[in-house]
Amino acid sequence: MLLNRPLYLQQLSTALTRSPIVALLGPRQVGKTTLARLSLQQSGATYFDLESPVDRQRLQNPELVLGALEGIVVIDEIQNIPQLFSVLKVLVDRPQNQAQFLILGSASPHILKNVSETLAGRVEFIELTGFDLSETGASEWRNLWVRGGFPRSYLATSDANSAAWREGFIRTFLERDIPELGISIPSVAMRRFWSMLAHYHGQTWNASELARSLGLSDKTVRSYLDILTGTYMVRQLQPWSVNLGKRQVKSPKIYLRDSGILHSLLYLSDWETLLGHPKVGASWEGFVIEQAIQLLALPEAYFWATHSGAEADLVFFHRGKSYAIEVKFSETPTITRSMRSAVDELELAHLWVIHPGQHSYPMDEKITAWPAQQIAALREQMG
Q1: Which residues contact 200 (CB under 8 A, 6 or more apart)?
Q2: Are 373 and 344 in contact (CB under 8 A)?
Q3: CB-based contacts of 26: which residues, under 8 Å, 6+ apart?
Q4: Which end of the chain has fewer CB atoms at under 10 Å, N or C?
């Protein structure tokens, strides 16, 4: 079974009409190869899978081999041979070049050293994430929240099979994927850090506290965090600062980007177990934030918090106006002093309180309760 991903297909098709190199990036097993094949099924594209020993052998002399090709050339898992970036730069700069390159990778430009600098002005980046509510259908929000958006996890025939797939994914990621990026960290140490991070999900980053808990240095835990961020496992949501008299939080908040992976690391295998866990509210917050960033196509997103307790879970901007989202795991959320403070001090055009219920209703002139199932409709509310 496949879910249609029309927005990504359109985005990829458009990028291929205007850029000599298109980079489709995202975590392992999120469907990059499937999306590329669906998009290019009529094009007669040439494929190289750099996890295949045969294809790696074919590219022993990449400039010679790739330089002779025409049309679209797909290079999958390009992070396995990062030297190809400089080769692609040379090829697309040649006047006689007849090829266009679609590169697929499981690490961000930050992790893929020098990719942004090497291919500056020649590459367009597209980030592919897991399924969102527009793809699964809004009524499937419970399954999507519990299982996460990785296709094989979400589409599994049972919660048990979904949990088994996620555990296998975590092990493979630690034991194979990270070492293939040239990063030498014992898988046991990274698993311990990742699990610890799951318990800090939704909290402000505190390197010293985590370092003490793990018996590591601040620098080491910072490097671990950057690796998980660069491989799309973790989101560091940065703080938004405004010129106020109040002391504002300056450290990022940490979220595991896929709720299913979070639940696996917390040993939460189904809906009932999740509802009874102390982290259910934090899990819901992270899930809603990821959905909002995807469904609203937010290029930049922040949180806001002061040391006196005022906060907004998600702050973003659209056509010169400021908006915010507050996330509550309650079907009947109420207005708090923190919400009013956010509206006033951030000069918000509107604040939406996202909840798991089915109805939207005004709570105040600039505050509206809004169901998570209808997050995509906020685009119309913003105009």
Answers
A1: 206, 210, 254
A2: no
A3: 32, 106, 127, 128, 129, 232
A4: N
Q: Are the beta carbons of 108 and 232 closer than 8 angstroms?
A: yes
Q: Residue 249 burial by CB count (10 A; 0-12/13-18/19+): exposed, middle or buried?
A: middle
Indicate the pLDDT class of residue 307, thresholds 50, 70 and 90.
confident
Pick the CATH number of 6-127 from 3.40.50.300, 2.170.130.30, 3.30.830.10, 3.30.1360.30: 3.40.50.300
| Digit-coded pLDDT (tens) for 161-211 | 999 999 999 999 999 989 888 788 899 999 999 999 999 999 999 999 999
Q: Is the pLDDT at 315 greater than 90, yes or no? A: yes
pTM: 0.93
Distance CA 326, CA 338 (A): 10
For the chain, residues classed under CATH 3.40.50.300 are 6-127
Question: pLDDT at position 243, please?
Answer: 67
Closest Cα to residue 27, out of 119, 140, 142, 131? Answer: 131
Span 105-133, pLDDT tens digits: 988 876 666 677 788 889 999 999 999 99
For residue 35 the two structure tokens come to: 């999306």
Q: In whole angstroms, what is the distance from residue 35 CA to residue 39 CA?
A: 6
User: How many CB atoms within 10 Å of residue 162?
Assistant: 25
Exposed, middle or buried: residue 224 (CB in 10 Å: 0-12, 13-18, 19+)?
buried
Residue reference for tokens 């866990």 = 277
Residues in the chain: 383
